[in-house]
């Protein structure tokens, strides 16, 4: 893995020349092919497949390069959440601990002064992401939940170290700044989407937003782990038989209760019908997976509660993010709406608003 001089961090795919790649990969490069993809659905990033004709027989010729989005709304969200720095630090400090679960990173570029960031990683073709609009298949859902339990189990009960000092988390008072951002975003969000969503969960969201800090304080009392915080099938690369999965897009990695990832995955990645049919079994599968990876029964006792109540957290996060991001494609707009509709219905199914009547921790 290489972290090159900040002056070399590419601002666009046009900067990815044979000379640049030769410096990054440490081998002469004869030719480069660049194919952008996932336009309109990679909301905070730009992605391109990079085919490299080089002279190292031990090195892959297929890569994926990730750069920050050039959408103004996405840039605002990314800066607020510090997403690109998070991903660079994840690949530098934490990815080596889970090498079998993430693509190998060959270059991590960081130039905060000019807001330039880049990660060059292995292309795992023919492994491919799922289709969130269509919905996860039963096989994909089971594999994704198993991987989630494996990752969370590794870091369950984590206490900060030098390697994770940078990691945002609900245990850090600074995360409360999101409360003000969400409150400010709600009018614009409701103007865009509110008329199409079930009214009761939206009412809960209005009550929840001004009390987000209290919710986070309550959550911080439980066991924490390194969570992905955007765990969806389009950020998962499945093997052709869907029996294995590699996890990409660590821009929102954070320290929180693991069931928040589970909540988001089940609510927004399965069709409403499939979620209602399989949700209980998948929650139990996650708990069983945690226990297989060393988490005690006592530490999994709160999973079901957090899984339900975290719907409010995700409603707040989507309201904040989707109030400003404008996807340039029809599929991107369908993906927005699909996530919102499924999440609002999941919150309604679980009566998530009842947690608003519980006294906060402390």
The dominant shape is: globular
Order of helices and strands: HEEEHHEEEHHHHEEEEHHHH
* Beta-strand proportion: 5-15%
Rounded average pLDDT: 91
Head-to-tail CA distance between termini: 45 Å
Q: What percent of residues adopt helix (DSSP H or I)?
A: 40-55%
Number of domains: 2
CATH class assignment of the largest domain: Alpha Beta
Counted beta strands? 10
Q: How is the biggest beta sheet arranged?
A: 5 strands, antiparallel
List low-pLDDT spans: 1-7
Based on secondary structure, the structural category is alpha+beta
CATH topology tier name of the largest domain: Aminoglycoside 3'-phosphotransferase, Chain: A, domain 2
Work out the radius of gyration. Answer: 20 Å
The helix tally amounts to: 11
Task: Describe the fold and architecture.
This protein has 362 residues and is of the alpha+beta class. It is 43% helix and 15% strand. The strands form three sheets. The chain has a five-stranded antiparallel β-sheet with strand order 1-2-3-5-4. α4 (138-155) packs parallel to α9 (272-292) and α5 crosses α10 (303-322). The chain is built from eleven helices and ten strands. The chain has helices spanning 18-25, 72-81, 83-94, 138-155, 177-193, 199-208, 212-219, 259-269, 272-292, 303-322, 330-349, and strands at residues 29-37, 45-54, 62-68, 105-111, 116-122, 128-129, 225-227, 236-238, 245-247, 254-256. The protein has two domains: 6-122, 2-Layer Sandwich (Phosphorylase Kinase, domain 1), CATH 3.30.200; 128-357, Aminoglycoside 3'-phosphotransferase, Chain: A, domain 2 (Alpha-Beta Complex). The radius of gyration is 20 Å and the shape is globular.
């Amino acid at each position: 893995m290489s972290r090159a001089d900040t002056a070399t961090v590419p601002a666009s795919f046009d900067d990815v020349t044979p000379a640049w790649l030769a410096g990054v990969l440490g081998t002469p490069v004869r030719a480069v092919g660049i194919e952008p993809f996932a336009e309109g659905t990679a909301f905070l990033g730009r992605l391109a497949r990079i085919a490299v004709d080089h002279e190292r027989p031990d090195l892959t010729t297929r890569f994926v390069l990730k750069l920050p989005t050039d959408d103004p709304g996405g840039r605002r969200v990314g800066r607020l959440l510090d997403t690109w720095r998070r991903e660079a630090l994840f690949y530098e400090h934490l990815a080596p601990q889970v090498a079998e679960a993430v693509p190998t990173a060959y270059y991590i570029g960081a130039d905060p002064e000019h807001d330039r960031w880049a990660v060059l990683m292995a292309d795992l073709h023919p492994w491919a992401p799922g289709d969130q609009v269509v919905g996860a298949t039963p096989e994909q859902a089971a594999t994704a939940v198993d991987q989630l339990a494996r990752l969370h189990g590794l870091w369950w009960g984590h206490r900060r170290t030098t390697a994770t000092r940078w990691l945002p988390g609900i245990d850090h008072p600074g995360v409360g700044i999101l409360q003000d951002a969400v409150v400010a975003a709600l009018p614009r969000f409701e103007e865009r989407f509110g008329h199409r969503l079930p009214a009761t969960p939206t009412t809960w969201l209005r009550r929840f937003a001004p009390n987000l800090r209290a919710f986070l304080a309550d959550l911080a009392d439980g066991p924490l782990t390194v969570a992905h915080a955007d765990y969806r099938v389009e950020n998962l690369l499945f093997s052709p038989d869907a029996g294995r999965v590699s996890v990409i897009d660590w821009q929102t990695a954070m320290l929180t209760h693991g069931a928040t990832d589970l909540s988001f995955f089940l609510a927004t990645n399965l069709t409403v019908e499939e979620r209602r049919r399989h949700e209980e079994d998948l929650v139990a599968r996650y708990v069983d997976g945690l226990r297989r990876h060393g988490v005690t029964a006592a530490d999994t006792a709160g999973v079901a509660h957090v899984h339900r109540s975290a719907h409010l957290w995700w409603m707040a996060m989507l309201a904040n993010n989707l109030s400003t991001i404008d996807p340039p494609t029809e599929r991107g707009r369908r993906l927005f709406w699909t996530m919102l509709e499924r999440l609002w219905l999941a919150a309604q199914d679980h009566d998530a608003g009842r947690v608003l009547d519980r006294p906060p921790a402390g």
